[in-house]
Design goal:
4 copies of one chain form a homotetramer. Helices cover about 65% and strands about 0% of the residues of chain A. By secondary structure, chain A is mainly alpha-helical. Chains A and B meet through helix 6, helix 7, helix 8 and helix 9 of A and helix 6, helix 7, helix 8 and helix 9 of B. The structure holds a DNA duplex.
DNA sequence: CCCTAAACGAGACGGTACGTCTAGTCTTATG
DNA sequence: CATAAGACTAGACGTACCGTCTCGTTTAGGG
């Protein structure tokens, strides 16, 4: 009825070395931080990690997949979701957290290039959604639930719509760069989304 | 014996051929439509156009710049800005136009990859903002002005903020692909932005 | 593999650089002399010559073809065919020349490895025959003709058979190494071939 | 390369499996017959034999050594040395035997590539001489002894010289391919060698 | 009857070189 | 000068094998 929770242990052959895996991810992170995804090559990673290229290809199907894993490793800390007491407060905290994170170089640059890489590789795009987008959104879902519980917004309000309204404008300035992505903008967006949701427009 | 009174435009050398330019752009468009930006190479364009690589480099500094020009050539038709009589109506028309345009393959794919390309090339990013982002936004500016004139929203409402609130969520689903970008979503976004602006949250 | 006798005039494009060609052949010769054919790689040649790999592949289809050309360039001096006054004298001079040439390291090693390389590459084998084997044999043909003119051997004697009888045993010891290939052996072979030919056994 | 004459008694551990050894040799022979030595790889043999690579390296030091053993296994039948009653007859029988054997594909191809392999591996060259060259020559030695006994050639005639005179030209055409190696050539060589030896030129 | 130790199949390991591809520049002959 | 053609240096690509090194398992002989 379901996939095995604990994958069956492979029976034969030399097991993959954890040391090798860590060396590859570390080298990747370094290179990404130094010069960005565009300048990161599999050969470069292999050399820096003191590893054969085959050991990389054995584990990751593409440069993007490797970069994604390495970036995810750094990101895992995640961001908090503390209750500020109001919908607008929660949205503002979320927007400010994200804004400050992506303005942090070089992580911000890598994220930007990773999103770019994802645009022309459907397999990678799937991983991106699973590993980055979905977790962050689920983490923020309680914000809407708390607002409903508080009676700030109607019961049927769509959390997905609200999340897109909040994150969308931030990503937009981040990737297009037509106007600055700063704290002030983050606060404005949060204010507008809170207002719209309170009006019941998200139902 | 005497210098010309009005300095004549330098006339030495063979002038650049218009035929060459058109052949390059046509070949680029074809290749983009066939296999996307990721698979488009300068060598491929040169061969398809029956042109030397140098003739391309003489005109465009990079693959992205060429692709941008070729795509812009196709895009010039633009979208209308007719007055629907209400802010929400105007926003909805705008959102639906954009949504339907990017859902059109292969143009949608090329745009997506172009945005990707822009992420790691600052020069190209500048061109992108000038040529695509700014014109579209200026074209839509009257929407806010009309809404103020109608008294739907306060005088000090920020058109840039409203534009970001509208386009941001659309781009977000377009590039991240976590949820479908369809007419229904476009209408929901327009409704929410109109609601927020009416509340005076965009001041 | 080599320049055509009558080079077809290429109409367009940048012509191949003579400098590049010479640098490649020089680097190849050096590497062959230093460590032999088995250790010579296309990458190594490219690096030593300060040349892109593509420039090598543009000119030679395989490592063996390149090595053959480089070795031929060194060999071109050739060996004399002076008339010693008798068949046995001429054969002996020929055998001694060849013996001493192949005992000369590193040229002898390269020749040995080149013959080896030829065994599993039919295209290369053709070039080998044309460029090395046939010229040498034709150069030695007058030996038999002079012997006939002198009346030492019958008119119908087969020069090819006599050449094989002379060179065969020398190559045999050279490649098999079961017994030393020295001047004494060269003289013995020459003596026997002369004796057999005088008996009219080569008719 | 092969089992030692007096196998040192191993004290402990699992003994080497005869099945494994046979599977390796069989797979090697198959691959040699199918595509030749140049295309035969240790990995390919291991896979075909259903054997770990280490089990091959435990037994043979190199690809050439393995190929030599596998080929030798097939060759063991050897060739007869019957007395035809005359030196020329014996030489002719020998030459024809060898000629026909090497013209037999794929065995002929493998032998050719094996000789090639030997040229750049001194250790393998030693094995080659011991295992192939010497046995064959010793097998043919009685030919000369019988000729002396018959009084066809002088007592001091050098068997090694005569063997080189006979085999050399055959190997020469076999490896160089400049002219066909056929029965007619084999007979001519035998006739010439017999003539020279009768003249006492082999003393 | 277990213990020891080597051999076993499998396959990962760090490497090297392959032959191909594209980048961006340079060099020719021809307009 | 610009052009089409194509050679130039440079270097990454992904693949194939190399010879070595773990794994967990098997298989004998000696204690």
């Amino acid at each position: 009825m379901s996939a095995p929770a604990i994958p069956v242990q492979k029976r034969t052959g030399r097991p993959r070395s954890e040391r090798t895996e860590k060396a590859i991810l570390a080298a990747t992170s370094q290179l990404l931080a130094e010069s960005g995804l565009a300048a990161m090559t599999i050969e470069g990673v292999a050399e820096r990690a003191g590893v054969g290229k085959a050991s990389i290809y054995r584990r990751w199907p593409s440069r993007g997949a490797l970069a994604l894993d390495a970036t995810f490793d750094e990101y895992l800390a995640g961001q908090p979701t503390e209750d500020t007491g109001s919908l607008q407060g929660d949205l503002e905290a979320t927007a400010l957290d994200w804004t400050r994170a992506v303005n942090r170089s070089p992580w911000g640059r890598t994220l930007r290039e990773l999103i770019a890489e994802v645009q022309s590789d459907p397999i990678l795009a799937g991983a991106w959604k699973e590993r980055f987008v979905r977790p962050i959104r689920q983490q923020r879902r309680p914000i809407v639930e708390r607002a409903i519980a508080r009676g700030e917004i109607p019961k049927g309000s769509d959390p997905e719509l609200i999340m897109d309204l909040l994150y969308g404008p931030l990503y937009h300035r981040y990737l297009n760069g037509h106007l600055p992505l700063d704290d002030s903008f983050a606060r404005s967006v949060a204010r507008m989304v809170a207002a719209a949701a309170s009006d019941g427009a998200a139902v």
